[in-house]
Hints:
The chain has 3 helices and 13 strands; from the N terminus they run H-E-E-E-E-E-E-E-E-E-E-E-H-E-E-H. The longest helix is centred in the C-terminal third of the chain and has 14 residues, at about 190-200. By secondary structure, the chain is an alpha+beta fold. A hairpin with a 6-residue loop joins strand 12 and strand 13 (about 180). About 20% of the residues lie in helices and about 35% in strands. Strands 4, 5, 6, 7, 8, 10 and 11 form a 7-stranded antiparallel beta sheet that branches. Strands 2-1-3 form a 3-stranded antiparallel beta sheet, with helices on one face. A 3-stranded antiparallel beta sheet has the order 9-12-13, with helices on one face. The protein has helices spanning about 1-15, 150-160, 190-200, and strands at about 20-25, 30-35, 45-50, 60-65, 70-75, 80, 90-95, 100-110, 125-130, 140, 145-150, 165-170, 180. It starts with a helix and ends with a helix.
Amino acid sequence: MKNRALIACLLLATSPLAYATTYKCKMADGRTVFQDIPCAPDAKTENVRGGQQGSAWVFEKRNDSEGKPACFVQSPSIGFGSRYRPIAVARLRVEYTKDGAIAELVSAAEPGTPSMPFSANTNGVGINIKGQAFLSDVRLSPNGTLRFGAKDSAKLVTQLQTDEPFVIRARHIKSEALFDSMGDRIDGFVAAQQLAQDCVATTR
Length: 204
């Protein structure tokens, strides 16, 4: 049994899903490219972001529904209700564009914790970072995310750079009650943000 447990742990640690790495490559022709495989030999690796998923902010670049590239910073899973038996989990995501940043809370699902949609009732919903004002300009978007207004998104980005613990207060559709997140501290926002800003600057 011990050997089986050890093998399982080793497989998890070496799984491509366990780690997220983004390579920033300066190509020979002057282009900057973000990719999830190492840079070519004739390219210069300018920045490498690596970290265990679930423990730090990560940078993501992917195409939106219209096929346009989008640059994001995303948190690991955030639990609501109880640390050991959360009623729901979500991820805080910040999309960077040439016009600024927009923050949103995305409902997620994990083994043992089903995805629970957010309620359209956003009264009392928002986020608080230690020592800062409660940001409550939040609306339920058509795709089911809780989206912060532009001004509160800008304030939130500034606050997240401090790496202080934050608490999210959300209302889920099944209970209609307000639940707080665990208030954990998540590292690496500034590094992930730099990659997202570089991504925007190099996206045509």
